[in-house]
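Please, structure for the following, as tokens.
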Amino acid sequence: MTEFKISEAEHKSRIEKVRDTISRRNLDALYITSSTSFFYLTGFSYIATERPAALIIPVEGDITFMGPLLEIDHIPLKTNLISIYKSYFDYPGKKHPIEQFAYFLKEMELENKQIGIDNMAGAAGIWGYNGPSIAEKLPKTKFVLTKDIVERMRLIKTQSEIDLIKESARWANLAHTLLQEYTAPDLWDWDVATVASHEASIIMKKTLGSLYEPQRWGHNSASAGFRGQVGSMSAIPHAISTNRPMKRGDVLVTEAGADVGGYSCELERTIFLGKPTTKHQKYFQTMLKAQEEALRAFRPGIACSSIDKITTKVFKKAGLERLMRHHTGHGLGIEAHEPPWLDVGNNKMLEPGMVLSCEPGIYEPGFGGFRHSDTVTITEDGAEIITYYPRDLESLIIPT
């Protein structure tokens, strides 16, 4: 890999797929409000705020950005694929951005056309959007909800995307190694996570050099932490923080990842600060068995629901089904959670190129949580586990 990002050629290929799709649907253009879709299609990553922005991709012709003035100088530094910039000063402004967007679409001669759109309001914002819809401002234009176009494209990863996620796994592994090495009684989880993430990020940047540029705002290049899943709080799957330092006897649930070209793997482990009790070991080994049986089942043509049923069966046989709090896993890539969902209610078949987490877990309030997560890619004849940190009990006990 010479560059740690998606190439311009691949972005162009994605745009052509969009154009082919909207042409087959008899649409004249695609109107996109999702900042994630902006990045996926053009490589332009920005900080989405309350300010509406939209990307207009016509069947033929130049791609147009409509959005706040503060991004106009930013765009050409990150992509050559957006040719036309149409801006407003700020939000809500003297003239509402949607009114400006309606005027811009008229300038593009799209007023009497059929336009696919990912959000019928025509705008999105971090706080939600409050204002007129684009359809209200352009009553002669037919807007068709086409949120599925980019979502379907993102479902199957290219080899370039998979390579970026594999590179992410390399640095997540380092970050997690440092996290486990530095974990000790009487330290706060946040302090250990900060040191491990910072050190791993410095090593990552020095190693990859000028070819590497972080794409995710607000994150370390490489990161590892506990997110509050310490001791009894480890039984809260999406905990945020804890109110005490770590201590001997704690169950700790970790997480690690790394931003490579805007993509990340998911790596999570259950570790023990000191020798685990018999009950700890039982819960751990049951969780591990559930994950291993699921991992063996990954292959093209198996339903997402079947994977979830496999892990449920393991927990049920052990008498621990009552401790389940979530399904077996989810897709991932640019976002931490993407379709498809490994859920009993999802009968979608796995296909080559899909990338998913495998993370069955059990959680007993007041006692602890037990979850490993590994990143898996579906291949033509099976599956490959991308993350490779040790999963066995002995490797995950920190002596005290």
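The radius of gyration is 23 Å. The mean pLDDT is 96.
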